[in-house]
Amino acid sequence: MATTKCLSKSAGKKIDKKIKRCQLLIEKDAGVQFSAEPTENIVVCNAGLSTGLQQEALLQEVLLHGHVQRVQLPPGKSYCFLKLQSKQVAEAVHSAMNGICPLGQDGAVLLLSFCCDMPPSFDRAWCAAAPEGLIVARDFVDPALERVLLAAVSSCDDHEPTEQHGSVLKNRKVKHFGYEFLYGSNNVDRSKPLRRNIPSVCGGLWERLRELYPSLNWHVPDQLTVNWYEPGQGIPAHVDTHSAFEDPILSLSLGSDIVMEFRHPVSGRQTLVDLPARSLLILSGESRYAWTHGITSRKLDTVPASHGGGLTVRKRQLRVSLTFRKLRLSDRCDCSFPACCDTAKRGAFDRPPSASIPEALAARVEAENVHRVYDQIAKHFSDTRHSPWPRVEAFIRTLDTGAIVLDVGCGNGKYLGSNPSALMLGCDRSDGLLQVCRERGFNVLQCDCLAVPFRDSSVDACISIAVIHHLATDSRRRKAIAEMVRVLCPGGRALIYVWAKNQEANAKKSSYLRQNRHNNKPPPSDARGPADPIAVVPMETVAGLQECSLPVHTNRTPFQHRDLLVPWKLRPNISNTSMGKDTFLRFYHVFEEHELEKVCLDSAAGGIEIVESYYDQGNWCVIIEKTATCT
Q1: Dihedral sign, CA of 440, 446, 448, 454?
Q2: Is 90 exceeded by the pLDDT of residue 386?
Q3: 235-238 and 311-315 as β-strands: parallel, antiparallel, unpaired?
Q4: pLDDT band for position 531 (50/70/90)?
Q5: Do you find a cis peptide bond into 353, omega within 30 degrees of 0?
Q6: How many whole angstroms separate alpha carbon 466 and alpha carbon 389?
Q7: Are 143 and 278 in contact (CB under 8 A)?
Q8: Is 510 a residue whose pLDDT tops 70?
Q9: What is the distance between the alpha carbons of residues 496 and 462, in angstroms, rounded to a whole number?
Q10: Can you tell me the distance from the alpha carbon of 395 to that of 187, in angstroms, rounded to the nearest whole number?
Q11: Which helix (H) or strand (E) holds 589?
Q12: Side-chain-facing half-sphere of 234: CA atoms under 13 Å
């Protein structure tokens, strides 16, 4: 590799060694093939968006030597790519900048190398279509009105008592007008209006809005939340509660620009929207009801470059957001987006949970049909549980170095080795499974998930994988989740998995059902024949209690009941209808869609936020974050 003539021989050798080390990492990470001979493609090996490199600064240097056809800065990477007009221009750039140009992190010189081809584009999220009903009205207010609005919301009385303070959102300053917006439930308490009304200067905004968008379904707001976002602060993805607020919801950005992220929970689609200072974001229709929106906590945003295509970085500055809402007259929503609608969810869960197990007998049922069973099947169970689920492992691996992680119901400890840089702790009720953990050298202790022997706010993250569904009543499930929230530090997160009643999603059966070969057969071509007779479901007395009996599930078939007994067979040659001495019945409560989110929110009384919920191979899953006010 030829280094620039401006460098001494020894300095050139040092530069070449550094470049070779970078090449090995970039080849593995980006799949790029480097070239020993000059080409029109150059890799900047040690500077990119993650180091704070701005495309404009890079182009300012490169364009001194010729025309640039394309620039690519991959998000989150410490390298980037240049496609020059010709091989000669690329050689000129390489000769003038390699080992000399101080655009690297903290003034380090750039390390350049030639490559054979440019990688695929990295700006797909910016190319995705915006959600329907989303409008960004640029320059909605002028700089003079911006100053007036900032003064108005800052000068209002800061001493009115509220249930929350700025610290609830990781020290982000927040102020409410009209009604207090309650984070965690994304709702308000209608019975507690505030004395502090929306500043009168905001009245002119509604006249301008009607002029610009006369067809918009519009109501004058009666609730305003003002957030002061310092660089590095954000807000988790969420949907404002359907039944609480009318359509649309408005957000006015003052002070500086920000990138907001939108995600469709059902399809998984994602898109990024840049909100310039003094712009008004209008969320109506699908964008209001069916997409989550949030802001990632960071100090730099990756945004489309203004010249030459590709992406660049932009430093965040103080941004003040004014979010205007109108309370609904009723507490019901009639939208056509049930996936995120609390009214639709209440339709399924306003009724009390089925009382299959009396509260007074729940502990005895769990002792006989959960704790005792797992002690008896511990070795066989452990032998079948050796592969961590990818999304659980991914959650653990994202945690910071030194994080304290508690696996509540750790079983045989298959997740306790997922992040060597974290302090992983496990707890379980089963002596047999804890013995397996100790033999593997893991840090574990014995306890009940309803009474975790950890201090308040003492761990950074929790996981609870396939545990909560073994608790016999709704109140005990809430209590177990409340225990995890109690031990979490403010801002800490918990990942919870439970078995889903629905074992089929997007026309695809779960792995649990696919293990039954009969479930994999295509349906008969003539579906008009006589219906199959209704199967008789066997019932079993639970824990020797004549007043308490539950249906016994047939393994590898769809669930027909929410509270049931699932057989575990130590010998695979025992048939499904045999309940011999080597068959053990475990109690399960399988969850309906959205039931887990409701149990989580009910367990913490507004002290958590739902960060994400999803379906994963026959399980309902949720990530929750503890807010600073939860105790």
Answers
A1: negative
A2: no
A3: unpaired
A4: very low
A5: no
A6: 11
A7: yes
A8: yes
A9: 8
A10: 28
A11: strand 583-589
A12: 20
